[in-house]
TrEMBL record:
Family per similarity comment: Belongs to the CDP-alcohol phosphatidyltransferase class-I family.
Major place of residence: membrane
UniProt protein name: CDP-diacylglycerol--glycerol-3-phosphate 3-phosphatidyltransferase
Organism of provenance: Priestia taiwanensis
Catalytic activity, reaction form: a CDP-1,2-diacyl-sn-glycerol + sn-glycerol 3-phosphate = a 1,2-diacyl-sn-glycero-3-phospho-(1'-sn-glycero-3'-phosphate) + CMP + H(+)
Annotated compartments: Cell membrane
InterPro entries: CDP-alcohol_PTase-I, CDP-OH_P_trans, CDP-OH_PTrfase_TM_dom, CDP_ALCOHOL_P_TRANSF_CS, Phosphatidylglycerol_P_synth
Membrane topology: Multi-pass membrane protein
Family matches, as Pfam families: CDP-OH_P_transf
Task performed by this protein: This protein catalyzes the committed step to the synthesis of the acidic phospholipids.
Listed pathway(s): Phospholipid metabolism; phosphatidylglycerol biosynthesis; phosphatidylglycerol from CDP-diacylglycerol: step 1/2; Lipid metabolism
NCBIfam families in alphabetical order: pgsA
GO cellular component: plasma membrane
Length: 191
């Protein structure tokens, strides 16, 4: 287990802590930012989520810089992303911030692509995330952070950037999922 893979595992280990902070019935109070009242739990959740999301960039950078890219890393990295994003999106549905159907579309795509990766792995192929998949992930991360921050600072200029980011994330989710399956359709057609 090399350092980038350990960093990826740390991302997975931050998920339960994020969930406890966001879902435990603890009232830590509220902070006022401008006209927006944000629960402290959301701010702590943003920090935990952001640190976990940042590890995605750190592990990839470190692995490329030190030539430590492994098949385990290619598998764990997107899995960690899926677990982190799915957990946060389910929390946002629970809070009533995001529409359920959007989260179902995103999580369904993640299961489908993971299934495709497993089929390819059975044939000895490991598919790393492509640029469209990475853009989709970063847009999802952006939307989640903006929702947890109650759209600060964009609410001051009346731009629902949290909602806009989520719509873009859903569109990229669909397009990148189609791209994965289209590029690997010959594998699915084999008997």
């Amino acid at each position: 287990m090399n350092i980038p893979n350990k960093i990826t595992l740390s991302r997975i280990l931050l998920i339960p802590l994020f969930l406890i902070v966001m879902l435990a019935p603890i009232d830590w109070g509220i902070v006022t930012i401008g006209d927006e009242m944000i629960p402290y739990t959301h701010l702590v959740g943003v920090v935990l989520f952001s640190v976990a999301a940042l590890t995605d960039w750190i592990d990839g950078y470190y692995a490329r810089k030190h030539n430590l890219i492994t098949n385990l890393g290619k598998f764990l990295d997107p899995l960690a992303d899926k677990l982190l994003v799915s957990s946060a999106l389910i929390v946002l549905v629970d809070l009533g911030y995001v529409q359920t159907w959007m989260v179902i579309v995103i999580i369904s795509r993640e299961f489908a692509v993971t299934g495709l990766r497993l089929i390819l792995a059975g044939k000895g192929e490991v598919v790393a995330a492509n640029m469209l998949g990475k853009l989709k992930t970063w847009m999802q991360l952006t939307a989640i952070i903006l929702y947890l921050l109650h759209n600060v600072p964009f609410n001051y200029i009346n731009v629902p950037m949290d909602e806009i980011s989520m719509w873009i994330a859903v569109i990229l989710t669909i397009v990148s999922g189609w791209d994965y399956f289209n590029k690997n359709k010959e594998v699915l057609s084999q008997r």
